[in-house]
Structure formats: C-alpha cells, structure tokens
Amino acid sequence: MIKPDGVHRGLVGDVIKRFEQRGYKLVGIKVLVPSRELAAKHYAEHDGKPFFPKLVDFLSSGAVVAMVFEGKDIVRTGRTMVGATNPLASSPGTLRGDYGIDVGRNVIHGSDSVESAMREIALWFKADELADYTPAWIYE
Ligand code: ABT
Ligand code: MG
C-alpha cells in the first residue's frame, strides 16, 4: 500500500513500475481515504504502543493506494524491495531508501508475512475485487 505521503509525492507510478518490472502480477488496486477505524484495524498489532495514535492519524490523513500483487515469494521479496522500516537504515535501491527520511513517513507498507498478507487483503478488498488470471509470459 502506498501511504498518503507516497500518493501526495506522486510516487504511485514508480512503485507499481518496480513491482511490474520485477515480474509480479497486479491483481487488485484501489484508491481510498481510509477511515480511522480501518487504519486502526490495519495497524492493530501496534495498538497500545506510543506511536500508535500518530500512525492512525497519518494513515487516515489522505488517499492511499491499496494493492495486491501475486508471484513467487512476493511477501519476502516485496519487503526487500520496500526496505527497512526506518528509511535512514534502508539501502539505496529500495523504495524507502530511495524516497524516505522519517520512520513515520516511510512511503509504502508491505505485508510482513503470508499470514499478515491474507489478513490485510481481507481487510482492504472484497473477493470480487481481485482478478484471477495467469501471466503465461513470466512463468513457464
Ligand atoms: P509497515 O509496512 O508500515 O507496517 O512498516 P514496517 O512493517 O516496516 O514497520 P512497523 B514496525 O510495522 O511500523 C509500522 C508503522 O509504524 C511506524 N513506526 C514504527 C513509528 O512511527 N515509530 C516506531 O518506533 C516504529 C517501530 C512506521 C510504520 N509506518 N509509518 N508510517
Ligand atoms: Mg509492519
């Protein structure tokens, strides 16, 4: 998911381009301004931590682009492409390492496990909003 800072900065195209050029398959995409309730559910694992209220404020402060990509090892590889949580620790070449400075404005969210991805996809998408197709030009 491209967070409000990434959308405001016009980084949507570049994020999608990087996943597409790697060969990952876009199966779901939507633009929305998340409610505080949705933002809190998304970051439920951080409820009670000192930065939680600011995090919910931030995620619900503007438009986000929620996406579902599919492909071999996408969760692990996707996190590598996103980079470390604190952009100052992210390697150049990663999204956060190329675009971010502050941990609370780190441009993009990536699911941290297959389990998290399943929970987050169900939170952000209805089943009929995901496309089922086979990219025969990537996989044999
Ligand atoms: P997300 O992909 O947004 O979940 O980030 P990541 O999994 O890399 O890191 P986590 B720990 O899940 O951070 C969630 C959001 O909370 C912000 N944050 C985190 C802080 O502001 N201060 C902190 O001390 C920590 C640990 C960073 C993440 N998003 N934003 N914006
Ligand atoms: Mg996280």
From TrEMBL:
Keyword Endoplasmic reticulum on entry: no
List of catalytic residues: 109 (pros-phosphohistidine intermediate)
Parts forming coiled coils: none
Cross-referenced PROSITE patterns: NDPK, NDPK_LIKE
Binding annotation for ATP: 3, 51, 79, 85, 96, 106
Gene Ontology molecular function terms on file: ATP binding; nucleoside diphosphate kinase activity
UniProt keywords, alphabetically: ATP-binding, Kinase, Nucleotide-binding, Transferase
Catalytic activity as recorded in UniProt: a ribonucleoside 5'-diphosphate + ATP = a ribonucleoside 5'-triphosphate + ADP; a 2'-deoxyribonucleoside 5'-diphosphate + ATP = a 2'-deoxyribonucleoside 5'-triphosphate + ADP
Keyword Transferase: yes
CDD domains associated with the record: NDPk_I (cd04413)
Entry's Gene Ontology BP terms: CTP biosynthetic process; GTP biosynthetic process; UTP biosynthetic process
InterPro entries, sorted: NDK-like_dom, NDK-like_dom_sf, Nucleoside_diP_kinase, Nucleoside_diP_kinase_AS
Pfam families (alphabetical): NDK (PF00334)
Residue span, Nucleoside diphosphate kinase-like domain: 1-132
Superkingdom of this protein's organism: Eukaryota
Cofactor dependency: Mg(2+)
EC numbers, comma separated: 2.7.4.6
Family recorded in the similarity comment: Belongs to the NDK family.
This protein's name: Nucleoside diphosphate kinase
